[in-house]
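Can anyone check this?
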Amino acid sequence: MKKIGKSTYKTEKNPAISFFASAVGEKEGQGPLGELFDRVFTDMYAGETTWEKAESRLQKTVAQMVLNKSKKKSGEIDLIFAGDLLNQCTASAFGMRDFEIPYLGQYGACSTMVQSIIGAVTAVESGGASACLCVTSSHFCSAERQYRYPLEYGCFRTPTAQWTVTGAGGCLIEPMASGAVIAHVVPGKIVDLGIKDANNMGAAMAPAAADTIGNFLRDTNTTPQDYDMIFTGDLGVVGSEILAELLRNDGFEIEGKHKDCGAMIFDCHEQQVCAGGSGCGCCASVLCSYILKSMEKGELNNVLVTATGALLSPTTSGQKQSIPGIAHLINIKNKKEIF
C-alpha cells in the first residue's frame, strides 16, 4: 500500500468485500434494521448451553454463511481475522476452531471489525493472501457478565450507557473481486482525554474518532461533503454529538453526513437502550447488512466507516484508570468510483 500524508494508506490491488453476512439476537432483529440481517436468533443461547458458547455460535454461523455465499471451501481461505470482547478472544477461537483455516485473533474492543479488515487488506495487498475472512461478534449477556454486573442484579443504567449488541458480522476480502473496494485504510492512534466513566464510552471514544477522521480528510485533501456518508461505530447518541462538535472545532462539518451504528441498530427510546448500541458485533453487523447492501443497490457509492473502541477492562476500571480510545477507518467505494 502507498502511504498518503500522516496516517492514510491507499490500496493498489483493489481489495474488495466480495461476500458478507450478519446474524443478530432477537432485540436487534426487532430494531430499525431487523429485516436486513441474514439471520435473527430468537434464543439468547442460540441453541447452546451458555452465553459464551452462543457468541461462538454467532461467529460460526456468519463465517459459514459467507463461505456458502462465496461457494468456497475452508481450504480456499488463506487467513481468518476474528475477534470479540471476551477475555483471550475465546468466542472467536472456539467459534473458528472447526474451520481449519490459519487464524489471527484480533482485539480492538468495538473497533475490532475494521481492525480485522485492515489486517486482511494488508495481507491481500502484500500478495501473501488471495482470500481472507473477517469475523467479529459480541453478546449482551456474555459482555455483561465480564464487564459489569450479573444480570440477576438488575442494575439500573445511566442515560449515557450503551447496550451491548448480540450479533456478528463476517466478510470475505479478495483482490479485484466483485463487490465494494477498500480504497483507503487508516490505522488509528490511541487517544485518551482522561474520561473515567465506564458508563460513558461514547465520550471516551469520540476523541479518537475525531482524530482518525480528521487525519484522513487532511491526508486525502477531502471534506465530509465528498462522501455519501460517514459511519461510526459505536459512539451512540452521546458520543456522536461529541464527535460532531470536535470535528466542527477542527474545521469539518459532518451534520447530515454522519450516522452511527450504535444509534442505527436500535430505536433508543422504544427499545430502552439508553444511548444506543455498542460491542464488536454492532459495527460488524451493521456494516455487513445495511451499509454493504446499500452499496450493492447503488444507494451509497463512497463511504467512510470508522469503528471505535474503548480499551478498558474490569481491572483498569476498578483501579480508577482513564479509558483509552481507538478508532480505525476504512474508505469503501463502489467500483464505478474507482475505474
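Reply from J.R.: I decoded it. The mean pLDDT is 94.
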